Amino acid sequence: MDVALVLAVDASGSIDDTEYAFQREAIASAFRDEHVVAAIKSVGVMAAGVMFWGDGEFPAQRIDWTIIEGSDDAEGFAQKVESNKRTVFGNTDIGSGIWAALDMLTDPRLCASRLIVNVSGDGKETIAPKRRHVATLDMARRRAEEMDVTVNALVLADEERDLASYYKQKVIVGNNAFVMSIDTYSDYASAIRKKLIREIPSQSLAQADTPEW
């Protein structure tokens, strides 16, 4: 297997049900896009999963692995995402979300040469008194580094104008990690598609074919 990718999607309390559904539909649409499927084919075989995260005191919501080699597999994954029902709310615990995504990447069935977490969010890490079951953002980033996982980010900066800078400094991990920023949910579908096209291929191909964001 060439790539294992987890989409770690913000489902915290700042995301209303309409926005949650919009994210879900945008991800499904992206995996039906011919250019995304072509990016997957360019690397051979990819395992894709989703982790909807929110308050770290409660379990993240997981869509398990789908092995994708072409459009039929991608369609099956898109249907899984579309049929998902929301169970996650609460604080913006980015660290716990990344930690849960990293847990997925420890699956012994995976033997991928590249491991990627694609995290999206509309806010900064919730600062709260220490809670027993919550992994901090620093903890999650250290673990990602130890596991040689690349963490890229897509941020919705409609309310916090410095959010892209925050994610660049505090969230992403890896030599070629990057942040993409959008201002409205109307841009989300296009952005997640472009982000997948950029991060799925090998780093050399992505850097040659994709403009900076």
TrEMBL record:
Q: VWFA domain: which residues?
A: 4-200
Q: Which organism is it from?
A: Sinorhizobium americanum
Q: Which domain of life is it from?
A: Bacteria
Question: Key word Cytoplasm present in the record?
Answer: no
Q: What is this protein called?
A: von Willebrand factor type A domain protein
Task: List the keywords (alphabetical).
Answer: Plasmid
**Keyword Transit peptide carried by entry:** no
Q: Which Pfam families does the record associate with it?
A: DUF1194 (PF06707)
